[in-house]
Amino acid sequence: MDDRILRLYDEYTHAPMPRRTFLERLAALCGSTAAAVAILPLLDSNYAHAAIAPDDARLATERARYKGASGDIDAYVAMPKSGPGKRAAVIVIHENRGLSPHIQDVARRVALLGYTGIA
């Protein structure tokens, strides 16, 4: 997908932009209103399609809080319930949308691979 479309959607979701303006600019980038409408479902983040359920029986998950340089940092930790007591950790860095359900899902997928996922 054209990076200009992603930047436009990001601007629309994070800055005050009327929907009509967004759709007009999207149609201009896509070449037509029909193409713009066809692309809309691809832009929306549908968190319901997360691959690993938050209550998956194979995983232990918890919320954690760490001290940061400018204040406390909230984190999501996922790890396998079975396996070695000590294991490597993978730090999952989130995008500009914060600690979203998708990023928590990534931490759970990392945990299913045998690591501790910290997001």
- Overall structural class, as computed from helix and strand content, comes to alpha+beta
Strand order of the largest sheet: 1-2-4-3
How much of the residues is beta strand, in percent? 15-25%
Helix content: 25-40%
- How many beta strands in the DSSP annotation? 4
Uncertain runs: none
Query: Helical segment tally?
Result: 4
Question: What's the Cα radius of gyration?
Answer: 19 Å
The biggest beta sheet is recorded as: 4 strands, mixed
Mean pLDDT: 91
Can you write the helix and strand succession as a string?
Answer: HHHEEEHE
Question: How many separate domains?
Answer: 2
N- to C-terminal separation?
Answer: 27 Å
Topology:
Elements: H1 3-14, H2 19-30, H3 33-43, E1 59-68, E2 71-80, E3 89-91, H4 101-112, E4 116-118
Parallel strand pairs: 3-4
Antiparallel strand pairs: 1-2, 2-4
Can you put this structure into words, describing what you see?
This protein is of the alpha+beta class. The protein folds into 2 domains: 42 residues, no CATH class; 60 residues, no CATH class. Helix content is 39%, strand content 22%. It has 4 helices and 4 strands; from the N terminus they run H-H-H-E-E-E-H-E. A 4-stranded mixed beta sheet has the order 1-2-4-3, covered by helices on one side. Helix 4 links the parallel strand 3 and strand 4. Helix 1 runs antiparallel to helix 2 and helix 2 packs across helix 3. The protein is elongated and about 55 Å long. The model has no long low-confidence stretch (mean pLDDT 91).
